[in-house]
Amino acid sequence: xxxxxxxxxxxxxxxxxxxxxxxxxxxxxxxxxxxxxxxxxxxxxxxxxxxxxxxxxxxxxxxxxxxxxxxxxxxxxxxxxxxxxxxxxxxxxxxxxxxxxxxxxxxxxxxxxxxxxxxxxxxxxxxxxxxxxxxxxxxxxxxxxxxxxxxxxxxxxxxxxxxxxxxxxxxxxxxxxxxxxxxxxxxxxxxxxxxxxxxxxxxxxxxxxxxxxxxxxxxxxxxxxxxxxxxxxxxxxxxxxxxxxxxxxxxxxxxxxxxxxxxxxxxxxxxxxxxxxxxxxxxxxxxxxxxxxxxxxxxxxxxxxxxxxxxxxxxxxxxxx
Length: 321
Fold this sequence. Notes:
- The protein is globular.
- It folds into two domains: 20-144, D-amino Acid Aminotransferase, Chain A, domain 1; 149-315, D-amino Acid Aminotransferase, Chain A, domain 2.
- By secondary structure, it is of the alpha+beta class.
- It has helices at residues 49-53, 71-84, 93-107, 148-151, 168-172, 179-191, 234-249, 262-266, 298-313; strands at residues 24-29, 34-36, 56-64, 67-69, 112-119, 136-143, 156-160, 195-197, 212-216, 221-224, 254-257, 270-275, 279-286, 289-290, 318-320.
- A hairpin with a 3-residue loop joins strand 12 and strand 13 (279-286).
- Helix 7 (234-249) packs across helix 9 (298-313).
- The protein has nine helices and 15 strands.
């Protein structure tokens, strides 16, 4: 930022502004009415209430091998989140599918992340949602990084978080106001670990910054927190379905959604993280102590293998771009 002692601030034209470099390869904007691939056009109006109020909802979908994974599951959660903040319904699934597919095609990448933003829309710099005549839809396609375990095969480290859990529906909805999540990620980086986990006011496990958490206890059960204080992930849903099969095969004794105390993490055989970009991740140390043997365990290996096969080879879960 330039010195505050400047006598005047220059008024710039487009030719005066340095070229903008964006990691996004293609953006659909309902404000524009189409798809752009020029980084200098990949903008959201400053008076869209998502910019200055966080007033919107979003989903992140991944395309792998030229197909979008679990698109209906993401669309369903987008609608639930929009309903929570009383935001007019998004376009129907058929229209959304066309927009998402064509945006990914424009990006020219068979593997990509796709951010779907449904916002209150442009209207004012005020706080009233009634200032915005209509919602806006933005779809951005950008690079899909390798999953966490592909980059760190020895597993992840984690600590308890000091950031409070979001209340009620704010925790259960994927709203664009992610300030607590950002603070959790900053906390992890500052503490030198890969993830931090939040706990509710009763000491129950909640979630990580953008991921769900599960615990395999000494009794052989895989448990995840109850839905009341977490955002239930689309990946977690799939993994729990696979875990039911492992219970039948004897690798697990059961699957449950129930309160998980902090002490349960200290005695866990395995701690697992589930997410769109992390897939299944093994936590090998929590709060400075090894988890189980201190190496990725058998439940991680089995669930990771099943999720990998589901993403790449289950026609029912893949929407070809």
